[in-house]
Design a protein that fits this description.
CATH architecture of the largest domain: Up-down Bundle
Distance between the termini: 50 Å
CATH class of the largest domain: Mainly Alpha
CATH superfamily of the largest domain: Butyryl-CoA Dehydrogenase, subunit A, domain 3
Number of domains: 3
Shape: globular
Oligomer: single chain
């Protein structure tokens, strides 16, 4: 496979440290050599290439920006660059890594007991164990505060009843971080595979994120021990803080998808000749599209870098991450559409990655907070007036 040359119009790399460049190069080499060759078939067949899991664990990709318990302890720029390269292969691969690190390892690391951390984090970091995150329900996506899944205390156990859906890695997971309503408010629980009353069902028929496992989780008088409650996960705010971690990774990841579409279109229009043997790239309308894409990718890189530095400094707000996710996903989706247009009929063929990215990005625009929800988060941040209802 040819190696990805990178996209750097504004000398973005000059803003990165040697360590950050080395982390990106490690991820880029892994994606070029191991991931990219697999995802054309993985998308077509609707299967996730599980053979990549232990390799990503050895490279430190899972929970890369967490400290201790075998985690790499990277800064958030390094973590973001990993997400960028991984999504260049496929959004389904980045989703797997995001869920494992941001939605499973992060809540255990942040809200868990020392026993829970020691038991799960090293195995999740290595890829020996896989996790999933259960918040969304069939009737409540953008309004998680209305969740119906309940947990009732009975002696030394909590008994869960309800359903979660659109759960990435659901049927693969050895442990699920599940959010449920209790008399004390919304709390987080660790539910292990094989627990009586806990079952999963994969969702089929997807035309997007086909190389990602998506499931429903069912709880029917599912009893988990008291020690499986995340002791510090109290209230919906705890669950939403996990989503902020995942949204941050998305804001970086989609830059990789946009880069792949842009570079595919740029190379194609330089090689393809029409009208008196002139390359397509020599036409004004083609250059207008390429100029738009490189400008927006460059702006997205700078936005992602600044939010990462705010995050490392402990100054980032959820509304900052909403702007990152909302802007960069919309940018990447438009890059995919413009690139598909530049390839003409060939743009819909699986020989090229563009249509696959386009289909995936339609989902990425929706999950971890829809474009509309992030618009309202930003609106509340600048006006002080919530407009969700």
């Amino acid at each position: 496979m040819p190696h990805f040359p990178g996209v750097d119009y504004l000398q973005f790399d000059s803003l990165l440290t040697e360590q950050e460049l080395m982390v990106r190069q490690t991820a880029r080499q892994f994606v070029d050599e191991r991931a990219v060759p697999l995802f054309r078939e993985a998308f077509n067949s609707g299967n996730f290439p599980k053979q990549l899991i232990p390799e990503m664990g050895r490279l430190g990709f899972f929970g890369a920006n967490l400290e201790g318990y075998g985690c790499a302890g990277m800064n958030n720029v390094e973590y973001g660059l990993i997400m960028q390269e991984i999504e260049r292969a496929d959004s389904g691969l980045r989703s797997f890594v995001s869920v494992q690190g941001a939605l499973v390892m992060y809540p255990i690391h942040t809200f868990g007991s020392e026993e829970q951390k020691n038991r799960w984090l090293p195995k999740l970091q290595s890829g020996e164990a896989i996790g999933c995150f259960g918040l969304t329900e069939p009737d409540f996506g953008s309004n998680p505060s209305a969740m119906r899944t309940s947990a009732e205390r009975r002696g030394e156990e909590w008994v869960l009843n309800g359903e979660k859906t659109w759960i990435t890695n659901g049927s693969l997971a050895e442990v699920a971080v599940v959010w449920a309503r209790t008399p004390e408010g919304i709390r987080g629980f660790l539910v292990e595979r094989g627990t009586p009353g806990y079952s999963t069902r994969d969702l089929h028929g997807k035309l997007s994120m086909r190389a990602s496992i998506t499931s429903s989780l069912h709880f029917d008088n599912c009893a988990v021990p008291q020690e499986n409650q995340l002791p510090c996960a109290k209230g919906l705010k705890a669950a939403l803080s996990c989503l902020s971690q995942a949204r941050f990774g998305i804001g970086w990841g989609v830059i990789g998808a946009a880069m792949d579409c842009y570079e595919t279109a740029r190379a194609y229009t330089l090689a393809r000749k029409q009208f008196d043997d002139k390359p397509l790239a020599g036409h004004q309308l083609v250059q207008e599209k390429l100029a738009w894409m490189i400008t927006e990718i460059s702006k997205a890189q700078l936005l992602a870098l600044h939010v990462a530095k705010l995050k490392d400094a402990g100054k980032v707000e959820a509304a900052h991450i909403s702007m990152l996710k909302r802007n960069n996903v919309a940018m990447a989706l438009e890059c995919a559409r413009l690139s598909r247009d530049l390839l003409g009929a060939n743009g819909i063929m699986d020989e090229y990655p563009i249509m696959r990215h386009m289909c995936n990005l339609e989902t990425v625009k929706t999950y971890e907070g829809t474009d509309h929800i992030h618009t309202l988060v930003i609106g509340e941040r600048v006006t002080g007036v919530p407009a969700y209802r």
